[in-house]
Amino acid sequence: MSRIATAVVVIALCMAAMAAAARVLSFGLADLSAEARTARKTLAPFLDDPMVGTLARARLLELDAGASDEARRERARNLLTRAPLSGGAWLAYAQAGFDTDEPMAKVERALLMSALVGRNEGWLMARRAAFAIPLWPQLSAAARRSIVDDLLGGWAGATGADREALVTIVYLSPDQTKTEMREALLRAGAAGETIIVEIGLTPAARER
């Protein structure tokens, strides 16, 4: 009897895990197709979801081009209050702080908190890097290391759009930023060398 009960529990756990994975996948597909014009309709089914609701709200905030910078900052603050352990919420707060001319030290703290609590979320790592790379000259050594870690952890799993955004951002970066990023990635070994080639940080790419 105990074996049957154990089997039932295992089956139930497996089904719950499959349902959770399906929900995350469903949100991921919606996130890929979300754009400013249709974001609220696309993400509406996920806004109150206990698993991905915070991610959906952070994404909606990111895509809401119609809101004022002050409104976005207030909404980011409210989102962070609801989900202080969400890397996406901290990134939204960093972005809103930058848009409203908050001191760079405050923006950087939010960025580092996003990296701390959202350390292994590949999609978030790519977007965090995309936001932070243009700030490279103004960031501390710790924040720069965080950008490199985000590239190392997020590049492989980044979507086509996220990859294209990163390549464009790197291409438009000052030469000094490119040089320092390249040196930091070289210190990371083979994984860093791969990103250097694919993202366009090779010396030849910089000369074109």
The coarse overall form would be globular
The strand count comes to 0
Beta percentage is: under 5%
Order of helices and strands: HHHHHHHHHHHH
- The SS-based structural class is mainly alpha
Task: Quote the average pLDDT.
Answer: 76
Radius of gyration: 19 Å
Structure characteristics:
single chain, 208 residues, mainly alpha, 12 helices, 0% strand
Q: Could you describe the 3D structure shown?
A:
This protein is mainly α. The protein has a domain at 120-203. It is 74% helix and 0% strand. It has helices at residues 2-33, 39-43, 53-63, 69-82, 87-99, 104-117, 122-132, 141-154, 160-171, 175-186, 190-199, 203-207. Mean pLDDT is 76; it is low at 5-33.
Reconstruct the topology from this structure.
Blueprint: H1 2-33, H2 39-43, H3 53-63, H4 69-82, H5 87-99, H6 104-117, H7 122-132, H8 141-154, H9 160-171, H10 175-186, H11 190-199, H12 203-207
Task: Summarize this entry quickly.
With 208 residues, the chain is mostly helical. The protein has helices at 2-33, 39-43, 53-63, 69-82, 87-99, 104-117, 122-132, 141-154, 160-171, 175-186, 190-199, 203-207.
